[in-house]
Amino acid sequence: MTAEPSLHPLGSGLELVPTSHEPQSGKDYTSDQEVRWCPGCGDYAVLKAVQSFLPDLGLRRENIVFVSGIGCSSRFPYYLDTFGMHSIHGRAPAIATGIAVSRPDLSVWVVTGDGDALSIGGNHLIHALRRNVNLTILLFNNRIYGLTKGQYSPTSEAGKVTKSTPVGSIDHPFNPVSLALGAEATFVARTIDSDRRHLTSVLAAAAAHRGAALVEIYQNCPIFNDGAFDDLRGPASDDRILRLEPGLDVTVGDRTWRHDPTAVDPSDQFALSRLEDPVPVGIFRQVERATYDDEAREQVASAVAASTATREERLAGLLNAGDTWTVV
Amino acid sequence: MTAEPSLHPLGSGLELVPTSHEPQSGKDYTSDQEVRWCPGCGDYAVLKAVQSFLPDLGLRRENIVFVSGIGCSSRFPYYLDTFGMHSIHGRAPAIATGIAVSRPDLSVWVVTGDGDALSIGGNHLIHALRRNVNLTILLFNNRIYGLTKGQYSPTSEAGKVTKSTPVGSIDHPFNPVSLALGAEATFVARTIDSDRRHLTSVLAAAAAHRGAALVEIYQNCPIFNDGAFDDLRGPASDDRILRLEPGLDVTVGDRTWRHDPTAVDPSDQFALSRLEDPVPVGIFRQVERATYDDEAREQVASAVAASTATREERLAGLLNAGDTWTVV
Amino acid sequence: MPRQVTRLDRVVIRFAGDSGDGMQLTGTRFTQESAIFGNDLMTLPNFPAEIRAPQGTIPGVSSFQIHFADHDILTAGDAPDVLVAMNPAALRANLADLPKGATIIVDTHDFTGRNLAKAGYDADPLESGELDAYQLHRVDLTGMTVEAVKEFGLSRKDAARAKNMFALGLLCWLYGRPTESTIGFLERQFARAPEIRDANILAFTTGWNFGETTETFAVRYEIAPAAQAPGTYRNITGNLALAHGLVAAAVRSGLPLFLGSYPITPASDILHELSRQKVFGVTTFQAEDEIAGIGAALGAAYAGSLGVTTTSGPGVSLKSEAIGLAVALELPLLVVNVQRGGPSTGLPTKTEQADLLQAMYGRNGEAPIPIVAPSTPSDCFAAALEAARIAITWRTPVMLLSDGYLANGSEPWRIPDLDDLPAIDPGFATTPNHTSKASSNGADEFWPYQRDPETLARPWAVPGTAGLEHRIGGLEKGDGHGNISYDPANHDLMVHTRAAKVARIADTLPPLTVDDPSAARGDGGARVLVVGWGSTYGPIAAGVRLVRGAGHDVAQVHLRHLNPLPRDLGEILKRYDRVLVPEMNLGQLSLLLRARYLVDAVGLNVVRGLPLTSGEIADAIEELL
Amino acid sequence: MPRQVTRLDRVVIRFAGDSGDGMQLTGTRFTQESAIFGNDLMTLPNFPAEIRAPQGTIPGVSSFQIHFADHDILTAGDAPDVLVAMNPAALRANLADLPKGATIIVDTHDFTGRNLAKAGYDADPLESGELDAYQLHRVDLTGMTVEAVKEFGLSRKDAARAKNMFALGLLCWLYGRPTESTIGFLERQFARAPEIRDANILAFTTGWNFGETTETFAVRYEIAPAAQAPGTYRNITGNLALAHGLVAAAVRSGLPLFLGSYPITPASDILHELSRQKVFGVTTFQAEDEIAGIGAALGAAYAGSLGVTTTSGPGVSLKSEAIGLAVALELPLLVVNVQRGGPSTGLPTKTEQADLLQAMYGRNGEAPIPIVAPSTPSDCFAAALEAARIAITWRTPVMLLSDGYLANGSEPWRIPDLDDLPAIDPGFATTPNHTSKASSNGADEFWPYQRDPETLARPWAVPGTAGLEHRIGGLEKGDGHGNISYDPANHDLMVHTRAAKVARIADTLPPLTVDDPSAARGDGGARVLVVGWGSTYGPIAAGVRLVRGAGHDVAQVHLRHLNPLPRDLGEILKRYDRVLVPEMNLGQLSLLLRARYLVDAVGLNVVRGLPLTSGEIADAIEELL
Ligand SMILES: Cc1ncc(C[n+]2csc(CCOP(=O)(O)OP(=O)(O)O)c2C)c(N)n1
Ligand SMILES: Cc1ncc(C[n+]2csc(CCOP(=O)(O)OP(=O)(O)O)c2C)c(N)n1
Ligand code: SF4
Ligand code: SF4
Ligand SMILES: [Mg+2]
Ligand SMILES: [Mg+2]
């Protein structure tokens, strides 16, 4: 099934969110709660990046909501001075869907981990993607369960020795980008905790996307999976990383093509997602498609518009519908 | 991430299942329970096909287990005279995983519907596929919830009017084949209820596959979604259907290649899965990769083999391990 | 032909046929006509879990029972006076429920060898004499229908499908029902298929005429209208009343309604109905599973909607963890459980009330939630409003416990005046509520867990409210400020506070109404009290009437609030020597009453997937007298 | 230097420091040495939910308490006699728990301005006089450690990390602990990092020598070994004992063990431990979520394994629907709930026993399951075996209710003789069990729901058994043959039968042991009975001792089986005037006892995330005397 062209031109992911007239700084987005990750945790870098990036959006702070599941990364909302919910394991995409569908004036973010999003929450994630709910989803992939102290996750490499796999894991891992593309996602990107510039640019594009935007963030867990992405860091990593840009010529196997994240057919983007050496980072896919929440609101709005009665009058009409009789 | 070559050559999906010396017929696989689908339901055709096909496997009937979830299609196990479990909604892949991992001598089948497998059970399905558990999964896709009387499903087309979508569905549907390929599946095929020959040949390949084999079966629901696949039936359908065969030249957009279900990189297979006109049926992907259950048993077996003690002696050793002291 | 007319005060008719025979429609139309005629009535549909179980078999039988009367009635009837059986299986499946002497009308057309065998008959019961104790009417309904409609050139199959309308027409004649509404209905229903429309109308009128012109039926019956309070009425099922109640709650609270749901029998119709009410600003989200359904509803509640999730028992099991989160978050949320037969998948299309203790205790940790249960189909409307009032006022998830009988059963409902409906005030927080040490001029901070001193409810501060940014979650929160707290004393305080909050709802409950005519006499009177909840109301009240009719005193009280229990219940229980608790479970309310009040409540516990009968309740009462 | 030696009968020491300071290891080693020395002991670890909460803060404090004695003891101690505080936060977080006069040993190194501020101190408590009521020992543990190990050329940070071993050495000297086992442990633990190994060993011995050579501590203490029954002992935590019990059940039943689990605190260690026991034919499957975990375990059980799933409260919520399926399928399955603070995510690392009613009622429909609860860490072994015996014999899911305190607490365990462990017979069905009408020579059909007349258990017929092919599922099944049945009377029968099956387990339970020394006196004796379950055993027994020590009579009975309740419990309750039920919940066992026996049980309900104290229990008893 190829993605259909969008039914009507979509706007920005944030176009219905009220903007702020006050200048903002990262400090405005910093809550009074002490940050409680381990020293050296990659989550710090992402938090800092998000705190400095949010002011650029120019939104009213009270119209931003961060929803998370459970995991180290899911502590994220506590540290941002916006509205936030630290929910239950794996369910953040579902909860965020309710928020996004019921409130077009909110910028809704989901913060999740590789266990939260891909293990217990895998189904909610793929359904949010296919429905294209207007959410920005940050998936902190440290390839381990951090909070529960180091069991392998659905992105851990086969053979990994962890607390629950003393002689090595035998699970073939998910590739989150491939999975998302297979699940009809309209925006899929990958970035890395340590590269603030890249991270910020991907976040900017994700936030601007109208629809579900999945950003996989490679994140180091120094305690339980230290160095998982070390070869993708620093200058020496240049030949291990492929920085995707629209128009870049990319070669996989014996085929070369020009990378087009806006291509409606995701096949080439999928082919890129299978690359392991070098590892592509950047935006794989960024296409327009009607969002679930816009359409849901549109259905409601047109029903409401079709009636001139007050809500009370309509209620009286509803209760008195069908075959009635009157006793006097 | 490209699928790795298998760690050791894999055998057939059924090689550890004892075979029968008695000649079998479809009647042997027919239970004494009355079949209770609606007249004309596509499930009848699939049941007949399976009942006539099972004898060809030559297995001992008592070593076959059918596990299903909930839905019209999930009544399937009641009608087969094998071991069977009609479980709860969406969970059949998880239950079947426990059966397959603990018992190499069983041929384990999962019967599920588009709601059961892709809505409530989506996560278990994609995890069974990535783990490559030795299961044959029959996904009856009628693009509707039959048993609950006609709500749209994750495979219903956008705009569909159903009991729960009186002004049309706004969900973008899953393509089960794309989703499976994104979820690291090793065997993915599609067939249709009315084409007994094609159905049987796909089932044969799926059963022979060692690992998780997903077979999407287009199935007509005459009551709530009649005719959903009518244009893929009968002689007139020839130009609407693309019958995949290994080595067939296939063209998508401006690219033509030779279809190779055994290609380790699933990208071309994925590209095929996006085709909507014609609709490809047949085997998209069929590659070897170590199965979760074989490896799990291998880890246990080598631990057991490394010890010469009896189980009782080992237990005494376990209980007496660590720092002990004796009071006399 | 002039016919003898016999006056009756009440009749119970059961229409039974194959799943494909349209018995539910037939029953619903007969009901509608009786309602318009002015009888009091109650109905009980009963259908298989399969969409179309194999034709002609016992499991494929679908039935619809209606009890209608010239006085107010309380149940759909213990046993039918009349059985309309469209095939051998329908006869066989229902015969055991008929008292001797009852009337049986059979469609003879299907009494062929093959069909008799399918139904498990060795011999034709119409001939074997085994129906001698009944008043048997053999009518070739199918044959006459096909004959009547042949002018329209329908296929034989299509023609035969109108036989249910023939049967309906005949019964309408027999019981003097008005026919206009059914003809109007058929005109609307089949507006786009004129032949089918006309065939059905003709079958219906032919059935009526058959009664009028032949001599098969020697007597017609008349059941006078029941005295009803003035007002406008409609016949309504529980699921529809519940959906209307939810819409009314949204209107009366001024909130948008957000339903997150996953289809499941027998709750799906609430989703279907609400998906048609977009004009009220209702959003329905058919989720990927029950967890996502409640998750989205909770998200919408957080964002300021009236969040609702509808399901049945297996779905509640899946939602338990998220209900616990709602308890911790202290957000308004309605969880509607239309109970069905359990455990596990159980009996999806049958009724039961075995999820009460799950509603009370089915979550990890101390996670108390209020529970409200409607007692009749139409009462689902008011119960939904009451559940919404509690959820919004106390910022808490509330369980609304309906069941399969209420869901599909129907009765006349006096449509309320909008002004009589309670107004519900969401009372959103709009300003800071706490004064920091640093502040010199009034509240300057927002504390999400600073409570209303009266209700103990916390503020509902929705995103978009400047200055009220805050974070909440499922970890234990510090009293007041709501930040994560691992402090032992705080946890003890919060656990006790959450319990106290729910307990305080009892302060706002009206006194219970004890139905005890003997109490006024002042001579001691009734010694036995019957306590019930939910859909057993009708059977219990009918059973109590039977006992009173036999000259004994007995009292009845029915609970709408299961948690918290009403404040006056303990005192009421003490007034009686014996307490009987009839339930369609193994004694769940009994357990709560025994534990709370140390009263030796006796259970009548029958778990058949069907409503209790007034007869068995009367027997149980009499044993205690 | 010769030192005065004081003899004590018991001491409670709490080691407290930052999460990164290795307090759990320090406490464990001290425990091990005390065990080997022969003291009776119990331990209580306490750590934050964060992996590493911010260094130096109150939320980052991790502690380990050990109570050791020359006689048998029952709890980890209400209040520490000695606090070892590695930084200001550790001091501040624990001070409130210390009785006046207690000993405090602080590492002065971290009492700097910044660290004091992080802990919320305005002034240095070591100087401010606020510790005057305590025996304060200021020791620069870190400084001395760094100094001692400098020869190994470690970084300052690595060197400083050995300070916990210095502290351990010092305490070992102070309480005359044997040191060999710790040195041996360090040798094994750091075998691959010789500098670290040697630095730790040196820090440990330097700490010991510091006590021996300086005059900081004027007194050494001696706690004589406790009299213990002959046997081989080891110190064991509840999670480890539980895992061993599961392995033992597999060995004694001859079944392979299949664990389907999803990690969750505080249950994950059972998964970790079992994943290391492949040599027993144990398969561990880390599933994608809790539902898949139990699903796979149920599948494995169907296929003939001992199926187990381990989790904590939130996971049980998610598993409810699948437990209901297991009830309907009537297959053996162990569901282990290591309870933690709730509701919702609650307090993941704290203990609680608020999931009892969830275990009883947390499923849709009438879905009774047996419940077994261990009472001490080492008792988890026997309780796991008992749960397996019940599951296998009655073909039923069983809930094993441990909790966070049992899971991580430890005590000496007398290792049982294998021959003393119960043998469990899976008794697989191998042949047809029913005679069809057609058969003339014996059973020729297999009926999966034909029950054992004594236990009411159904046959366990695993795939691969020729002639026993059958289908089961979650829909209601016909009695005996097990085919789908919608028959009302059958459903009532099955609901009652499933309940009766679980009730019958009580026939095989041994009589309860009532601890009531006064009963023998025959003069009436105790009037108050204390009833408990699970991990409150120790605190209750200790509280009872306190009351008896004060000269009063009181009786105690502790329940291992919560469902069904033992047959003799009702009669026992009747013997006493007052019944006290202390629980770490709002009165869950109380509710069951009140409902079942109409006894006016009084609850002591404290929900702090910590074990009850013997002191508060003694107070509650004395109020009832
Ligand atoms: C229902 C439920 N199951 C299990 C847990 C335990 N748990 C908490 S976080 C987590 C996994 C965390 O892994 P990930 O999402 O990768 O986050 P990380 O800690 O690595 O950032 C688990 C298993 C839980 N809190 N709730
Ligand atoms: C936990 C739970 N939720 C919901 C249901 C209701 N339910 C039963 S089958 C079904 C969907 C069936 O659709 P599908 O899987 O496509 O099967 P079909 O009937 O179309 O063959 C639903 C929603 C249930 N039985 N259990
Ligand atoms: S455990 Fe790992 S992911 Fe979690 S806070 Fe520590 S470093 Fe970060
Ligand atoms: S409802 Fe549809 S899918 Fe279900 S049995 Fe009937 S025809 Fe088949
Ligand atoms: Mg992670
Ligand atoms: Mg379907």
UniProtKB/TrEMBL annotation, chains A, B:
InterPro entries: 2-oxoacid:Fd_oxidoreductase (IPR051457), THDP-binding (IPR029061), TPP_enzyme_TPP-bd (IPR011766). Residues 70-217 form the Thiamine pyrophosphate enzyme TPP-binding domain. One of its GO terms (molecular function) is oxidoreductase activity, acting on the aldehyde or oxo group of donors, iron-sulfur protein as acceptor. GO terms for biological process: cellular respiration. Keywords: Oxidoreductase. The keyword Oxidoreductase applies. Residues 1-32 are annotated as: Disordered. Pfam families: TPP_enzyme_C. The keyword Signal does not apply. This is 2-oxoglutarate ferredoxin oxidoreductase subunit beta.
UniProtKB/TrEMBL annotation, chains C, D:
Keywords: Oxidoreductase. This is 2-oxoglutarate ferredoxin oxidoreductase subunit alpha. It holds the Pfam family POR_N. SUPFAM superfamilies: Thiamin diphosphate-binding fold (THDP-binding), TK C-terminal domain-like. Residues 257-472 form the Pyruvate flavodoxin/ferredoxin oxidoreductase pyrimidine binding domain. GO terms for molecular function: magnesium ion binding; oxidoreductase activity, acting on the aldehyde or oxo group of donors. InterPro entries: 2-oxoacid/accept_OxRdtase_asu, Pyruvate:ferred/Flavod_OxRd, Pyrv/ketoisovalerate_OxRed_cat, Pyrv_Fd/Flavodoxin_OxRdtase_N, Pyrv_flavodox_OxRed_cen, THDP-binding, Transketo_C/PFOR_II. PANTHER family: 2-OXOGLUTARATE OXIDOREDUCTASE SUBUNIT KORA, PYRUVATE-FLAVODOXIN OXIDOREDUCTASE-RELATED. The keyword Oxidoreductase applies. Residues 20-207 form the Pyruvate/ketoisovalerate oxidoreductase catalytic domain. It comes from the Bacteria. GO terms for biological process: response to oxidative stress.
